[in-house]
Amino acid sequence: MPQHGPQLGPQHGHPPAEPRLALASVDRSFGPVQVLHSVSLDLRPGEVHALIGENGAGKSTTMKILTGYLRPTSGEVLLDGRPARFPDSQAAEAQGVVLIHQEFNLAEELTVEENVFLGRELRRGLVLDTRAMRDRTAALLDRLQARIDPSARVRDLSTPDKQMVEIAKALGREARVLVMDEPTAVLTHRESAALFDQIDRLRAEGVALLFTSHKLDEVRRISNRVTVMRDGRVVLTRPTADMTEDRMAEAMVGRDLSALYPRRATPLGTDVALRVRNLSVPGHAEGISFDLRRGEVLGIAGLIGSGRTEAMEGLAGLRRHAGTVEIDGRPVAIRTPRDAQTLGLAYLTEDRKGRGLLLDKDLRENLTLPSLRDFARPFVDRRREEAALDAAIRDFDIRAPSRAARAGHLSGGNQQKLLLAKTMLTQPRIVIIDEPTRGIDIGTKQQIYDLIHRLAAAGTSVVVVSSELPEVIGLSDRVLVMRQGRLAGEVEGATKTEDAIVRLAMGLGTERNATVAQESPA
Amino acid sequence: MTTTARPGAARARPAINLHVLGPIVALLVLVIAGALMNPNFLSYANVTNVLARSAFIGIIAVGMTFVITAGGLDLSVGSMAAFIAGLMILVMNALVPSLGAGATTILAGMGVALLCGLLAGWINGILVTRMRIEAFIVTLGTMGIYRSLVTWVADGGTLSLDFALRDAYGPVYYGGLLGVSWPILVFLLVAILGEIAMRKTAFGRYCAAIGSNDRVARYSSVDVNRVRLLTYVGLGLLVGIATIMYVPRLGSASAATGVLWELEAIAAVIIGGTMLRGGFGRVWGTVVGVLILSLIGNLLNLTDWVSPYLNGAIQGVIIVLAVILQREQRPEG
Questions:
Q1: Beta-carbon separation of B208 and A58 below 8 A
Q2: ipTM > 0.90, yes or no
Q3: Stretch A228-246: mean pLDDT, rounded?
Q4: Which numeric CATH code is attached to A259-344+475-522?
Q5: I need a surface site. Which of A82, A163, A357, B74 has the fewest CB within 10 A?
Q6: Distance (Å) from the C-alpha of residue B293 to the closest C-alpha of chain A?
Q7: What's the number of domains chain B is made of?
Q8: Higher model confidence: residue A123 or residue A374?
Q9: Which CATH number characterizes residue B307's domain?
Q10: Is cis: bond before A378, omega within 30 of 0?
C-alpha cells in the first residue's frame, strides 16, 4: 500500500534554494537533562521537509525552537541566513514562522473568520470591518480549496476542517514557514489525501514546510527531504527519493525491525472464553455476535465511525447495551465497568489522554486506580503500590523522566505502556485493546505487539480494535470487519488480506467474502 | 529526553515547596503577629474562643474539601445549617411536653439534625449525579430553598429553644473534656478522620481521580456517581453535626443563621491548597485555612490598627493570594 510514486516538488532538478529557516548546532537542556545535541536542520522555500523519529527523540523540542516556543541553550536559529531572534512565538509569527499544533489552537466558540483574524482584527474607525474580514477569510479558504463557511462556528466544524482553518489562519499571517506537528494523526486516509493536496499547493507557492508523522508511507508520499532524529540527535538528512520506509524505520530505531509481528508459537485451543450474541448499543451497533477463544487474538477492523469502539464499550459496561454475553460458558450481565472488572474483562480505551490516564497525576496513582481496592485493606498500602510500580516499570519498560513524573509528561508510547500496565494490574482474562499503537513510534509498537503476543500465549484472550490494517492483520488470528454498526464479515487465514477487509468495510463484498459474511460464528 | 525510571531508584519524595508550606507559614505569621500585638492573644481563653468558633465552619469545610476535590461544589451548606437548626429547635420544643427537657429530647433533636443533613446532602448529590445538573446550579437552588424555608418556618422572625432545654443542651457547646470544649474536640476528630480518609483510603484517591478527570475514573471502573454522591451526603452529615454543636451556643435560629458560611468554608478549602477545579485536595490544609480565616477576624478585634469592618477585605486578599499560589501547580497540557 505505500505509494512509491515520484512526488517531488517543483524545484526538483534545480539547484537547492537558500535555506529560509535553519537551526545551526542547536543544543537544548531542560535542567540537567540535555534533550537536543547539536541539531542542524534547514527548511527551504518550496520544499516539504519531514522530521521523523521515535517519541522522545526530540522532534517536538526541535519544532518548538524553530518556531519561537523555546529558545536554544546554545546554537543559533537562522532566518534567511541571519540569526533570528524569536523572544516568543508571536515574534516568530510576525516574521512568518508559524507552528500548527497537533491539538489545534482555535477558539471553539468563535466563527472561522473571527479565528482567522483573532488578535489582528481589521477595523474601520472604531468598529470591526466584518465584511473585509469575511472576504479575506473566504479568499484564504478558496486558496486552500476548502469549502468552509467563514461564518460557521469552529465548534461545529469537523477535524479536517479545523485543520484547514488553522492553515488559513497561518496563511493570513503571511506564513513563509509552516511547521506542522503530526497533521495527519487525527485524519482519515481520505482527509489526509486532501491535506496533502493543500501541502502540494503551498509548496508550489514557495512556502517552506516541515511536518512530523509516524506514518512513513505519508513521508514518502509528500516530502522532498527527510530528517531522522534519535535520542536528541540528527541521524541523517536525505532526499526522500533515496530512502525506503524500511530504511527510515531502521534509522529511527537504530536496529533491525524485520519481525514486527510475532508469530503464534502454540496452536490455539478450542475453549470459548467469551461468547457474544446479538450485542447492540443503541445508535451505534446492532446484532453483533462472535466467539473469542482462550488465548486468541481477535482483530476488529472497520472504518472510523463503524461502531467498533461503541460496541466494545457496550460490552465493557461503559455504554447501555442489550444482548447476551457468556464468559466461560456462564451468562453474565455487565452493566458497569466494575462488573466487567469483577468478571475479568478489561477495556483499554483508544483515547489515552482523555479517558485513559490522569495526566496531572503521577505514575503510581494512575497505575493502581482500577485495582485500588486490592491495595486498600482498609488503608491504601503505599509500599505495595510502589512495588507494583517497580514491577510495571520493569515488565512494560516504561521510561519516564523520573519516578514521580506526571503521566502527562510521558511520551505517547510510554503513556500507552502505562495504560497497558494499569489495565493488566486488574488481572483480566479478556482484554479489549482499542487502537493499541495510535500515535506511537515504531520501536514502542514492536514492544506492544510483543506484549499482546505474550498475553495471548499465557492464555489471555485479546480483542484488538485497530484502524491500521497491517497491524490488525499481523496481530490477529481472525479479523471481524464492522460496517455501519454491524458485522460485515470475518476473515481468517488466507482470506485475511487488506483487500478483503477494505472491501467488507466499504460494503463491496466479493462473492467469496459474502459467503464468509453469512456464516454465523459457531 | 527520557531516562529509565529504575525500580527502587529515586522514590517519589514529597517536594518541599511554597505550595505546601504557604498556608502553614501564613498561619505562623498570623500567630506571631497576634502574640506581638496583644498579650492576650495566646491566652487560654482567647485560643479556646477562636478554636470553638472555628469549629462550625471547620467541620463543614472538611466535608467541603471532599466535594471540591471530586470536582463539585456546595453553596447550600449555610442555609442548610440554618434550616436544620430551625427544624431541630421546632422538634425539640415540641417534644418537651412529652419527653421532658432532658437528654432524650436533645438526642431526638440530634437525630433529626443528622437525618436532615444526610437527606439534604443526598438530594444535592442525586441532582448532581443522576440528573447531571451543574453542582453550582443545584446548590444555588437548594441554598435559596433552605434559606427561604427557615424564614418561613420562623415566620420571618427567630425560633428560640425552650429555656429549660437550653440549660440541658448548653454543655454541648460550653462544656468539654479536660478543659477542651466539645466543638473543638469534634472538629479535631472530624479533621483527623477526614485526613485519613483523604490520604489513606481508596475513597480519597477516587475523589482526586474524579476531580482530575471523571471520564478517566469511569474508564478505570471507579463508580463515579456513587463516590460523588457520597461526598455530598458526607458533607450534609457534617453540616448536621456542625449544627448540633451550634444550636446550644445561641439557642435560636433565624433567617440570619449561617449566612455566608458556604463562602467561608469554600475559602478555607482553597486557602488550604485544595484546587477549586478539583483533582487535588488536602484536609489538613483546610484546617489551616479555617484557622487563618478566624485568626484574622480575631486579630482585628483584639487590635485597633485596622478596623474590624475590614475583616472581609483582608480575607478576600488572602483568598486571592492563595489562588495565585495555586496557579503554579497547574500541570501543563
A1: no
A2: no
A3: 89
A4: 3.40.50.300
A5: A82
A6: 29
A7: 1
A8: A374
A9: 1.10.3470
A10: yes
Nearest to A153 by CA among A202, A203, A96, A112: A112
Per-residue pLDDT tens digits for B34-90: 888 888 888 888 888 889 889 999 999 999 999 999 999 999 999 999 999 999 999
Q: What 8-state DSSP symbol labels residue A111?
A: B
Give the residue extent of every domain in chain A.
Answer: 19-96+178-258, 104-175, 259-344+475-522
Please report whether residue B34 resides in a domain. no
What is residue A47's predicted lDDT score, i.e. its pLDDT?
93
Q: What is the CATH number of domain A19-96+178-258?
A: 3.40.50.300
Residue B39 C-alpha cell reads as: 498579650
Q: Give the distance from residue A110's alpha carbon to the nearest chain B alpha carbon, in angstroms.
A: 22
Phi, psi of A302 (to 5 degrees): 145, 160
Residue B30 lies in a domain: no
Tell me if A19-96+178-258 shares its fold with A259-344+475-522.
Answer: yes
pLDDT band at A255 (very low <50, low <70, confident <90, very high): low
Dist CA B204 CA B223 (whole Å): 13
Tens of pLDDT, residues A62-82: 999 998 888 899 999 999 888
What's the pLDDT band for B108 if we cut at 50, 70, 90? very high
- Which residue in chain B is spatially nearest to A32 when comparing CA positions? B1
In a domain, B261, yes or no: yes
Chain A residues near residue B212 by CB distance under 8 angstroms = 358-361
- Using a CB-CB cut-off of 8 Å, the residues of chain A touching B192 are none
**3-class secondary structure for chain B?**
CCCECCCCCCCCCCCCCHHHHHHHHHHHHHHHHHHHHCHHHHCHHHHHHHHHHHHHHHHHHHHHHHHHHCCCCCCCHHHHHHHHHHHHHHHHHHHHHHHCCCHHHHHHHHHHHHHHHHHHHHHHHHHHHCCCCCHHHHHHHHHHHHHHHHHHHCCCCEEECCHHHHHHHCHHHHCEECCEEHHHHHHHHHHHHHHHHHHHCHHHHHHHHHHHCHHHHHHCCCCHHHHHHHHHHHHHHHHHHHHHHHHHHHCEEECCCCCCHHHHHHHHHHHCCCCCCCCCCCHHHHHHHHHHHHHHHHHHHHCCCCCHHHHHHHHHHHHHHHHHHHHCCCCCC
Residues of the domain holding B206: 40-325
CA-CA distance, A238 to A216, in Å (whole number)? 14
Question: A380 vs B221: CB contact, 8 Å cut-off?
Answer: no
What the block records as the C-alpha cell of B112 is: 433529626
Neighbouring CB atoms inside 10 A of A64's CB total 17
